[in-house]
Amino acid sequence: MTALPRWCLIFAFASVLSGAPAPAAAVPEGTMTWAVHASLAPAWFDPAETTGIITPFMILYALHDGLVKPMPGQAMAPSLAESWTVSRDGLTYEFVLRKGVKFHNGDALSAEDVKFSFERYKGVASSTMKAHVAAVEAVDAHRVRFRLKKPWPDFMTFYATPATGAAWIVPKKYVERVGDDGFKKAPVGAGPYRFVSFNPGIELVLEAYEAYWRKIPSVKRLVFRSVPDESTRLAMLKRGEADIVYSIRGALAEELRRTPGLTLKPTLGTFTEWVALNDQWDPKSPWADRRVRLAANLAIDRKAINEAEYLGFGKISSSIIPQDFDFAWVAPPYPYDPARAKQLLAEAGYPRGFDAGEVFTDMVYVPTAEAVANFLQAVGIRARLRGLERAGFQKSDQEKKLKPLARVGSAASGNAGTRIEAFVLSTGARAYGGFPDIDGLYQEQSGELDPKRRAAILKSIQQLMHERVLFAPLLEPALLNGYGPRVADSGLGLIVGHLYSAPYEDLKLKGK
Prior knowledge:
This protein is of the alpha+beta class and 512 residues long. It has two domains: 6-12 and 25-218 and 479-509, 3-Layer(aba) Sandwich (D-Maltodextrin-Binding Protein, domain 2); 272-476, Dipeptide-binding Protein, domain 3 (Roll), CATH 3.10.105.10. The chain has 16 helices and 21 strands. Strands 8-9-10-1-11-19-12 form a seven-stranded mixed beta sheet. Strands 14-18-13-17-15-16 form a six-stranded mixed beta sheet. It is globular, with a radius of gyration of 23 Å.
């Protein structure tokens, strides 16, 4: 393998230094409790099953660790890998593992665990990653080498960020002994907290792993409680039954902000939400007509939704791709113009509107989807709201059952290419159809090593998405969270683009 240029070697050396363990901390003490907005799913305990959304990383950052992952101040921080190098031809990536790391059951981390974890990965981008990777080789106990079939500039974007869970490592021997189902019942990782107990859909309890390589966690026990009702989450925070709560919106968020002793903490992630117009691929559906799709976009008052649901902390969006993503093209905004929307419907043959069927949503986002349905109703697009629990919603989406409409969101990391791969490419895990010309442009950019040429191709794809009105983008929402008087450091906002508390070993209670 050809050595890296000098600046890359300097970067790799600096990465080693930046990952050096901190001085020993005091013995972990106390309990920190979260009231979580979604039902906890056992699939979130297994990095191999990450589904292209950020929610599982709420748990993965505690239980597990990745070779490389986002951390405070670093988008790709050395973690289980203390450094890595890339060959000049872009075909080989080699990772040097941190020595002395042990999983929670005492097994030592090795290159075989890394190889096993990648080959076992079956999440949202598994087909894409495995189509590009020719082989994974355990060079020795602490070195692992990835060989690509051809240069792929997005390898680290897919592998080393929460775009996937492929770089989050599980212990091979333990998984082989207990099986996949056994692993989800009693997960073992290399993260700062180890599994204690799980009451399905209700409560997950974790305990500090004092041998964690980076630092000893400050808080002894973490408790995550599923509390779907927002008013109940806020009441728990007020009573001291929860220290941190996620996703408090609208009037309740304003109440949280006004309550003495409580702190409102919005977080902005790589998060966009939109209405997926999933019936547009059926030529007999009204949604096959571009004018109908454009009418739906003009019917929605995004500013009103942002103010009502997110207290104005979100950002109005005209794309499913976050504005801060690499290679993002900021599309022209859709104005709120219900009169023009009605005119377009009439031109499409629906002067009195039409029955649009159901608009599906994750239960957490019922208020947003309800607002959208009301705006559509006002111009004659009669849609009925249907909420599903998050696990059921995700399963139905993967099975392409959310028709004709669905409120969809993604806060997965990556760039414009990764978001297009999942939701726009005809073979994408979350796509309901596609276009040959967009597929061809995507394949062209995926192997393009010239950043300027690649940016131009990705811009062309995004322009086609906008011209064809493939989606009804809504917002880049803020997650409105709150924490109580016992919390010295909530971890909210420490990692840029991450919506939840993290890294957990940095959290602190007052008096410690």
